[in-house]
Every structure is written in structure tokens, then in C-alpha cells.
Amino acid sequence: MDFLMSGLAACGACVFTNPLEVVKTRMQLQGELQAPGTYQRHYRNVFHAFITIGKVDGLAALQKGLAPALLYQFLMNGIRLGTYGLAEAGGYLHTAEGTHSPARSAAAGAMAGVMGAYLGSPIYMGMFQALTEIGQKHGLVGLWRGALGGLPRVIIGSSTQLCTFSSTKDLLSQWEIFSPQSWKLALVAAMVSGIAVVLAMAPFDVACTRLYNQPTDAQGKGLMYRGILDALLQTARTEGIFGMYKGIGASYFRLGPHTILSLFFWDQLRSLYYTYTK
């Protein structure tokens, strides 16, 4: 049941944030490996990107890829949040004295993130026809192209997100700012987690987006980057340190609300379930 509630919470958040994912991806690929000032900027900022995509490609383009995104979120975050929830319910995130352990929380978040992201990676690559084409062209292994490269991003993001969320909830409960069962407790913790995860993930997010979108040879090997470290180094060398945070505004508008909504929905669904099954 934990996995089902986790997947539903992530899908609920995805419906609202998928347009932000479309905008973020386009902004991150803009001017790829080109020095600042040497290319035409189609999107000046997040809001300009929204307007431009809506005008040029139509409003439906802002929800492009929604179906595979929902499937990916249900699978990836269903496993990730479900696994973390089981670890939390089993008491593995607390010390022998019963206090919350940020280190254990971060480790559990990282492991849960790796499991979810690796199993969900083929869905991230595309859906149905795309999966068939990738499988026929590059074999079964091709469905996981870029998956290992994306794991550092997932480890950093998942551990930061879940550790910050649990630690903030624990701290606010100790300070008695909100009652332990208040929805405000989960909402504030999710907001803090949203800021932390965007700052931690932005460079890896840029590199991962470029790894997945780079052209490949006949064997499915990337033609531009050898891996996530190479993508980070090339981006920093060519576009500067700010190139690694390209599209951070769009990243926050997507990851921030998605983190807030998914963690809030997840927490509230679990609270309702445990309340009515006791």
C-alpha cells in the first residue's frame, strides 16, 4: 500500500508540474556547449519560455510527454517514496535513543532513489513505440542508456530531498510550532525541502538532461559526452559555472512545486491511511 500511495502522490504532483518540466528541458538545451553571447536565445526566462512555447507550438505542447511522465513518476517515486516510507515505519531512520538521524535518513533516501530511478529509466527514455524502437536499435541495454550517468543526480537529489523533509518535520515538531498531525507541518517541511533539492540538483540536472538528449552513433554511444562527469566538466569549461545552473529558475518552478506537492500528498495520504486502518 505504501508503494501505491507514493505513486499516486507523485502522479498528482506531475499533472501540475509537467509544463514546467517542458520549459526547464528546453532552457537547459538552449546554447548547449556554446559560449555565452554566441548563440540566439529563444527563451529569455521562464515566463518568456512559457509564452513562446504556447504561441509557437500551441498550449498542448506544454503538456508534451505527460503520459510517460505519469508512468515514470508512478514507477520511480512509487518505489522511491514507498521504500523510504517502509524504512521510516520500521524505525530504521532513528537512533537507539529514538531520535531522528539525518545521516540514516540521507542514506535511506539515496538508496531508495537509486532503486526507483534505475528501474524507471527506460520510461524516462520514451514510451511504447519509442521503447520498441530503442530496443530494436540498441538492444535491451539501450533502454538503460544514460541510467548510470543519472545515478549521481538521483543520489544527491533523493538524499537531500527526503533527509531535509524528515529533518525539518522532526525539528518543527520539537519546537511545537505545529501539532504533529497538522497538514501545515508537512507543507512547511516540503517547502524547505524544495529549495534544498533544487540547489543540490541543478548542475546534475543540466548534465543529465544533456546526456539523455545527445545524439548517438549506431551502437547507441553518446557522441558529445562520455558520462555525467564529462558533461559537467565540458559545460563548466565552455559555458562557465553559471552554465551548470542554466535554467535554475525553471528548475525551481518545476522541482520546487513538484517536491512540495508530491511530499505533501504523500504525507497526507499516509496519514489518512494509517488513521482509518488503525
TrEMBL record:
Instruction: Specify one Pfam family.
Output: Mito_carr
Principal place where this protein is found? mitochondrion
Q: What does this protein do?
A: Putative antiporter that exchanges dicarboxylates and sulfur oxoanions across the inner membrane of mitochondria.
Fetch the Gene3D superfamilies from UniProt: Mitochondrial carrier domain
> What does UniProt give as GO cellular component?
mitochondrial inner membrane
Family, according to the entry, reads as follows: Belongs to the mitochondrial carrier (TC 2.A.29) family.
Subcellular localization(s) per the UniProt record: Mitochondrion inner membrane
Keyword set, alphabetical order: Membrane, Mitochondrion, Mitochondrion inner membrane, Repeat, Transmembrane, Transmembrane helix, Transport
UniProt keyword Transmembrane helix, yes or no: yes
Q: Does the keyword Repeat apply?
A: yes
> Could you identify this protein by its name?
Solute carrier family 25 member 35
Q: Where are the Solcar repeats?
A: 1-90, 100-171, 181-272
Q: Which domain of life is it from?
A: Eukaryota
Task: Quote the catalytic activity from the record.
Answer: a dicarboxylate(in) + sulfate(out) = a dicarboxylate(out) + sulfate(in)
Q: How does it sit in the membrane?
A: Multi-pass membrane protein
Annotated gene = SLC25A35
